[in-house]
Amino acid sequence: MTTLSSGFARARRWLRDHPLAFDAAVALGALLSMICGSFADPGAGHGPAFGTRTPGLFSVFLMVLGAVALVLRRRRPMQVLAATGALAITEYVLTEPPAPVVMSTVIALYTVASRTDRPTTWRVGLLTTVAVSATAMVFGSTPWYSQENFGVFAWTGLAGAAGDAVRSRRAFIDAIRERAERAERTREEEARRRVAEERLRIARDLHDVVAHHIALVNVQAGVAAHVMDKRPDQAKEALAHVRDASRSALNELRVTVGLLRQQGDPEAPTEPAPGLAVLGELVDTFRNAGLPVEVACADRDRLPAAVDLAAYRVIQEALTNVRKHAGAGAGAEVSVVRVGATVEVTVLDNGRGSAGRRPGAGPGGGAAGDGDGPESGGHGLLGMRERVTALGGALTAGPRYGGGFRVHAILPVEARTGEPERPGTAGGTGIRR
User: In the predicted model, is pLDDT for residue 408 greater than 90?
Assistant: First the structure.
C-alpha cells in the first residue's frame, strides 16, 4: 500500500510539473469517452442501447477537433470554450442523432470557472448553458423536454459550479498559506527584535557596572599614589577600597554575563539583580571615595523587578558622573519618592565641574548627567534614558539654577515589561542618612 501511494504521489508531482502532458491525457480521455458515447442510441426501446448506431465521419471529425482544443484549455481557456461550444452547436444542428461533442464543452467550461473570478463564471456559464441547451432543444429530433436535453443543461451548469468551487478552495488554501508565511516572517522579526533589545539591555548593564566601579578604582588608586609616602595607613585604606570595588565589579559582571548562559548550563547565577534594597551599600562606596551623599528613600512598597533595577542603575550612573565631573568638594543628594502610580528618582549635586567635559551643561553647571567624560564612552545619559523609556517612564537631566546638576527619572510602578515583582527590594534605605 505504501509503494502504491508513493507511486501515485510521484505521478501527481510529475503531472503538476508537466501541465501540457496532463491536458493531453485529459483530451485523450475525453475523446475516447465521446467516441464510446457516440455508439449509444438514447431513443432505442425503453432506454439507451449500445451498438445500435455508428457515428458518422463528420461527427468523429468534430469530436477530434474538440479533444485537440482541450490540450490548450489552460493557456487559452476562453478561446477553447468558444471553440468547443461552436463545435457542439454545429453537431446539434447538422447531425441526427448528435454525437456527445458537448462533453468537450463541459470540460472547457469547468476550466474557465476554475481559473477566473465568480462574476465571469456566472456570465460565461449562463451564456454557454443557454446557448448549448437551447440549440439541443430547438434542433433535436426529440421533444424539447426530453431527458437528453435536460441532461445537457444539467451537465453544463454542474461544470460551472464545480469549477467555481475548485477556484474558491484554491483561493482559500492560498490565503491560509500566505497567512502562515506572514506569521512565520513576523515571528522571525519579533525574535530578532527581542534579541536586539536584550543585547541593548545587557550592554547598558555592563556600562553601568564598569563605569561605576572603574571610576571608583581610579579615584582610590590616585589617592593611594598621592599619600603612599607620607600617610601609608591612608594609602592602605584606599587600596582596600580599590580591592573591594574591583571585587564588586567582578561579581556584578559575573552575574550580568551569567544571564547569557543557556538553560541547564552549570553555575547559573541565582542571586537577584541589584535594587533599592542595596542602595545603602552603593552609597557607601561613593562615601568611601570621598563623595558626601545624602539619601532619602520614602518608598517602602514593593516594586517590580525591572523598575527596582532601573531606579538603582539611574542612581548608580548619576552618582558616578558626579564623582567624575563635579569637581572637588562636591556633594550629592538622592531621593526616591512614590507619587501615585509612579516612583520619582532624583539625584542632585552642587559641584562646579568643567563645562567643557559636560556637553550640554552651561558654565558653572554641576556634574555631567550625560556621562560623556572619557571614562564613560558617551553612553551614560543615553543608557539611563533608554532604560527608563523602555519601562514607559521619562528622564530629564540638566544644570541647576545657581550651579550643580540634576537628574530626575519618573518610573511607572506597573512597568510595560510585565516582569514579576520581587519582594523586599525597597525597604532597606528608608531613612535619611
Answer: yes
